[in-house]
Specification:
By secondary structure, the protein is an alpha/beta fold. The protein is built from 15 helices and 19 strands.
Length: 438
């Protein structure tokens, strides 16, 4: 029996892929270990979206191949986006790597493990637009689970390599997603987070209409399901049906993650985004007017080729005016094989970093102010961790795991991980809250 250890890098979509790989391993041949030092095979599920992610992936690969000499490791297999993007280069430059598993070839995991353990070097990246592997049953179900509702993307933003790494948009059938969510809930999940490269595009390829609202409505029929959260809601297809679902569906948390990327029409056009400033402002205004208590998270890119000082000032003013609850900023990463990489007026790294820091400084003050206004409010909190004898850490509907803040909860009585408890907010930090159990 060979022990398999998987290192997962990057976004929640990679976490789902890792879960699928673990679930479909041939149990007669392979078992999962969480200790890299005892693994016979280490799989690095890589990220290759931007420069920083690529660097982290390379560092992790180099750390993993060291286990061939200091641990029990016999073979190292690479999966994920970086592996899909540079298969031959990785094999050549890091000869200790024994195989490459492309993003569309997860179903071949056992075949590749068999091959590399037989001494063969294998690259399999040919099945980019493969169908999603349905019917996979996760063994260890957590209170919060991510569910991928589609794969790939049709946006073709000029800065983004993802369509070349994940293929075209391919939605899963509603009944298949329902079956997966129902299984997860029956086995202990209480919060389901729906993810895709672009969740608002869900269903257009299968049903000839945008169907995210319909999917959410169906999932809400699962009785034991407590929270539904949706990430990566691109603004161009955030339709009225979806807005009404946020208004009326008690299981759908009032939290939206909308990657806006910029507000200057000049930059948005060069990014090949499908929205403009007026449409974005109308959407943000509509969401806040119609959905009571809505929390809006977004991300922006600064230093995009041709972004003038005026473009940046416009973005900064927009952020100061509309005061997003949650906000992330990324310096533009010049990715080969993208249209933006060939644009004139590339911006130097120092300017990119300065612009990012300026926005995050402003956002820190905005976040601190927003959270200070929460003092005295009562929130329902999902308990995720015990920090000491009478203290716990959890999240309210306002925070997605790992990317947002938390709420620290003081409680005289014992709480269990996975409990939902009522908490009164008694203090705030820049990005987190402190509360007492009611």
């Amino acid at each position: 029996m060979n022990k398999i250890h998987i290192v997962t890098l990057g976004c929640s979509k990679n976490e789902v892929d890792t879960s699928v790989m673990e679930s479909i391993l041939d149990k007669d041949k392979y078992s999962v270990t969480h200790d890299a030092s005892e693994a016979d095979v280490i799989i690095v599920n890589t990220c290759g979206f931007i420069d920083a992610a690529k660097e982290e992936s390379i560092d992790t690969i180099l750390e993993s191949v060291e286990y061939k000499t200091k641990g029990n490791c016999k073979k190292v297999l690479l999966a994920g986006c970086l592996a899909q993007r540079y298969p031959e280069e990785l094999i050549k430059e890091i000869p200790e790597v024994d195989g490459i598993l492309g993003t569309g070839n997860i179903g071949y995991i056992n075949e590749l493990l068999d091959s590399i353990l037989d001494g063969k070097k294998v690259i399999k990246t040919d099945n980019l637009n493969s169908d999603y592997l349905e019917g996979v049953k996760k063994k260890d179900v957590s209170v919060t689970e991510y569910v991928k509702i589609s794969e790939g993307c049709n946006n073709n933003c000029s800065y983004c390599i993802i369509p070349k790494l994940r293929g075209i948009n391919r939605s899963r059938k509603i009944e298949d997603i329902y079956d997966e969510v129902n299984y997860l809930v029956e086995n202990g999940a209480k919060e389901i987070i729906l993810i895709a490269q672009n969740t608002t595009d869900y269903g257009i390829d299968l049903y000839s209409k945008y169907s995210l609202a319909k999917l959410i409505k169906e999932l809400s029929k699962i009785e034991k399901l407590k929270w539904i959260r949706v990430l990566y809601l691109y603004p161009d297809h955030f339709d009225d049906d979806l807005i009404n679902e946020f208004i009326n569906n008690e299981k759908l948390v009032k939290y939206v993650d909308i990657p806006l990327q910029h507000i200057s029409d000049n930059v948005l056009k060069n990014m090949n985004r499908k929205t403009n400033k007026e449409q974005i402002i109308n959407l943000i205004t509509t969401l806040r007017e119609k959905i009571e208590g809505i929390i809006i998270r977004t991300t922006f890119i600064v230093g995009f080729p041709g972004e003038t000082q005026e473009d940046f000032d416009e973005l900064l003013k927009f952020i100061e005016t509309y005061k997003f609850d949650k906000l992330g900023v990324f310096p533009y990463s010049q990715e080969e094989d993208t249209k933006a990489a060939l644009l004139d007026d590339q911006i130097d790294d120092e300017t990119k970093e300065k612009r990012r820091d300026e926005i995050m400084s402003v956002q820190s003050e905005i976040s601190s102010s927003i959270l200070s206004d929460k003092v005295g409010e009562k929130l329902e909190v999902l308990i995720e961790e015990k920090t000491d004898e009478k203290s716990y850490m959890g999240r309210s509907y306002m925070d997605a795991p790992e990317i947002d803040g938390v709420i620290y909860v003081n409680s005289d009585s014992e709480l269990k991980i996975g409990d939902f408890v009522d908490v009164e907010v008694i203090d705030s930090l820049d990005y987190d809250l402190i509360g007492e159990r009611i």
